[in-house]
Amino acid sequence: MTERLQIQNLYKIFSANPEAALQILANGGDKNTVFDKLGAVVGLNNVSLSVPQGAMYMVMGLSGSGKSTLARCINRLNEPSAGKILLDGRDIVPLKEEELREVRRTRISMVFQHFALLPNKRVIENVEFGLKLRGVSPAERRRRADEVLSVVGLARWGYHFPHELSGGMRQRVGLARALATDADILIMDEAFSALDPLIRTEMQDELLRLQRTLNKTILFITHDFQEALKLGTRIAIMSEGELVREGTPQSIVLEPGSDYVAAFTREIDRARLFDARSVMRATAPILQSERGILVGDAAGAAGPGFVLDGEGRVLGALDAAALGRARASGEMGTPSSDYVSVPGNAKLLEVARSYRDGRPIAVVDEDGRFVGTLGVDELLSRISSTSAKTASAGDRHV
Amino acid sequence: MFKADDLAIFPIDSWIQHGVSWVALNLRPLFLAIKWPVEALLSLNDAVLHAIPFPVFVVGFTLLAWRLATPGIAAFSAISLVVIAMLGVWNEAMTTLSLISTAIVFCAVIGIPMGIWCASSDRVWNVVRPILDIMQTTPSFVYLVPVVMLFGVGTVPGEVAVVTAAAPPLIRFTNLGIRMVEHEIVEAGLAFGADKRQLLFEIQLPLAIPTILGGLNQTVLTAMVLSVVVAMIGAEGLGLVVLQGLGRLDVGRAAVGGIAIVLLAMVLDRITQKLAEPRRGGAAQTSLLATVMRLFKGGRPEEPAATAIAAKQAL
Predict the structure, then answer these.
(1) Averaged pLDDT for residues A271-282
(2) Which of A101, A113, A161 lies nearest to residue B193, judging by beta carbons?
(3) Which residues contact A246 (CB under 8 A, 6 or more apart)?
(4) What is the pLDDT of residues A31-47, one digit of tens each?
(5) Could you give the CA distance from residue B51 to residue B49 in angstroms, rounded to a whole number?
(6) What is the distance between the terminal CA atoms of chain B, rounded to a whole angstrom?
(7) ipTM of predicted assembly, 2 dp
(8) If you count Cβ atoms within 10 Å of the first and of the last residue's Cβ in chain A, which end, N or C, has fewer?
């Protein structure tokens, strides 16, 4: 995957004279030192991250953590004080007003927390807004707006006014407006935070559905860790203007790295978060015969074995006793068809649902090839575990 | 004993006297240039209003009030106009109306761009604001002295005084309306790549219109007051009726003028107040069809004047 957006050592100081504050930060001072000495607020303190093409990148943090400041720096609604923002490798911080306008019109669009629709314009005119600013002809932009409105499921509402729509529908209009410009980067600033819980869930599912076909690069700002886990391909957690943890949802829950992050992960429903691949045990070949290849636990522990064909597809399973005999005698024995096969990306909850009384579980990849096995023990311990490691070396403390 | 009068050593009165005389003498072409468009538009308005036959005017004005406001206000307008005619001051009322309508045009042309400028820069607003404060707290007849010195006496100099006094509310409300536009909506405009002109015309002005119309209401009322006061420097109209009544100790005549002024002021106030109320679907909707339909159905604004009220409180 290519890196669409890279942020390097970004600082934002809310002050007329950021140089002095930057100097203090460079000499090892922190946010509070700057505030005590200069009375200036540090919005972003040396933030670096990179967003790959097609990612749903979540920036998560509590209020005042600098997450919205970060989002507004990316399209320069806030001017960064120092650092680089690379869009496809081109730094957009030094851009002149005209070039910046071009980037805003064609490359980056934005969805707002309180929708920010024009109350005096009809839904379809709101959706056309970005195209109108760009100077697209009325017929062309109406056609495009119609198209996008049906994508978000509001085809019949084009000629209503925003106040006639419910909150969820208004945010669909906000989303349609952002999609209409064909910008490949979408900044969603707390886009679903103002919606009721049920509508929020519905919109999250809708966004996931849309993203499958649109494949935009989405930077989603949220204060809701559950939302970040549900939507994100990667999550960056911010606190006090700094990036404290960055990684995939599963890796963050597994290794929060600091007490601050661990506090968010504690109440997470692990059965819905982790997939089979993340807990499975690796296997190694034990025997090979005309029947196929027998694989068992790589460390030599007891447990079920599986017989695979040359392509790596599962032909049958051996239970623990049969595997032990096979290890001892070198005879493969008869594989049984009593096993359960689950895809690697199946959540643990689904794995638990498909589990049947004592049958071994085979984990397979998208092409049906065997990748590993997992037992009830691993499943239960992962679901019930609280993060074992906190504050491992190299992680920033909060 | 040391008296307060001993401190009166600054001959400010004579300085100002000389200053104004100098200005009046040397900058005469400037004041003639200011006076000219005022005179042209005023005489046009005056001629048109006096040329329209009375019944046509009443019917036309009532329909206009119906369209812009409510059937109730339209009926009130019709009755008021007929009463003014019955009082026998119709021609004077038309002269006053021409003074006010001319003032509205000049105030809009000066005040709205001025308000936009003030909203675009805190520095400008910090300079303009105290000037507006002074202009709005100064008793209205204080305007008359410099106006007489610089522009002379009569209806046209009177109109200059009316415009000067009536413009500040419109500047203030335009500035306020633009500054009150929700921050997130302005941000949305910028995020989608609006330039300064697009931001103003696509977002700020349309959303500020209810507040600006609230300012227009204030401007109309101030113009109404001033159009009466300027009778003292020889302007014609209802004010002159009152002034004549006072001069001759003719209480009846003065009361007739007073009643006509009150009726005209109430009609103008009610109509412009309704204008300022945001309609469902936004005040900026001015499609021709919708307007014609409103004319027949007597469509009513449904939302209360939340914005206008908020704006008044904010002042």
Answers:
(1) 85
(2) A101
(3) A49, A234, A235, A236, A237
(4) 888 888 888 889 999 99
(5) 5
(6) 47
(7) 0.80
(8) N
Q: Does A78 touch chain B (CB under 8 A)?
A: no
Residue A256 confidence (pLDDT): 87
Q: A381-393 burial, b if ≥16 CB within 10 A, otherwise e?
A: ebbeeebeebbee
**Beta-carbon pairs below 8 A across chains A and B:** 70
- State the DSSP H helix or E strand holding residue A315, giving kind and residue range, or none if neither: strand A314-318
Q: Evaluate if residue A325 carries a pLDDT over 90.
A: no
Nearest CA in chain B to A134: B193
Q: Which of A195, A191, A177 is nearest to A228 (CA)?
A: A191
Which of B185, B192, B212 should be substituted to probe chain A, the one whose Cβ sees the most A Cβ atoms within 10 Å? B192
Which residue of A lies nearest to B198 if distances are taken between CA atoms?
A133
Residue of B nearest to A97 (CA): B195
Distance in Å, alpha carbon of B208 to nearest chain A alpha carbon: 11
Residues lower than pLDDT 70 in chain B: 278-315
User: Rounded to a whole number, what is the distance in Å from the CA of A182 to chain B's nearest CA?
Assistant: 12
Q: Are A204 and A56 in contact (CB under 8 A)?
A: no
Helix (H) or strand (E) holding B172: helix B155-180
The shortest C-alpha distance from B280 to chain A (Å) reads 9
Interface check A120 vs B, CB under 8 A: yes
Tell me the residue type at A336: S
Q: Is the pTM of this model over 0.90?
A: no
Q: Which of B19, B101, B27, B103 is nearest to B61 (CA)?
A: B101
- Separation between Cα atoms, residue A168 and residue A127, nearest integer Å: 15
From chain A, pick out residues whose CB is under 8 angstroms from the CB of B194.
Answer: 133
Collapsed DSSP state (helix, strand, coil) of residue A70: helix
Q: Are the Cβ atoms of B193 and A110 closer than 8 angstroms?
A: no
Query: Alpha-carbon distance B99 to B165, whole Å?
Result: 13
Question: How confident is the model over A196-243, as pLDDT tens digits?
Answer: 888 999 999 999 999 999 889 999 999 999 899 999 999 999 998 999
Contact B184 A75 (CB under 8 A): no
Per CB-CB distance under 8 Å, the chain B contacts of A130 are 192-193
Chain B CB within 8 Å of residue A105 CB: yes
Nearest by Cα to A180 from A257, A118, A124, A233: A124
Sheet containing A82-87: order of strands? A41-52, A3-14, A82-87, A90-91
Helices B71-86 and B54-68 sit at what angle, rounded to 10 degrees? 150
Q: Where are the domains of chain B?
A: 14-314
Cβ distance of B192 and A130 shorter than 8 Å: yes
What is the tens place of the pLDDT at every residue in A116-141? 999 989 999 999 999 999 999 999 99
pLDDT digits (tens, 9 = 90+) for A156-174: 999 999 999 998 899 999 9
- Residue in chain B lying closest to A99 (CA): B193
pLDDT of res. A235: 94
A86 touches chain B (CB under 8 A): no
Walk me through the domains of chain A, giving residue ranges and CATH numbers.
Answer: 52-273 (3.40.50.300), 276-383 (3.10.580.10)
- Tell me what the mean pLDDT of segment A287-298 comes to: 81
The domain made up of B14-314 has a fold known as: MetI-like fold (1.10.3720)
- Supply the pLDDT for residue A284: 84
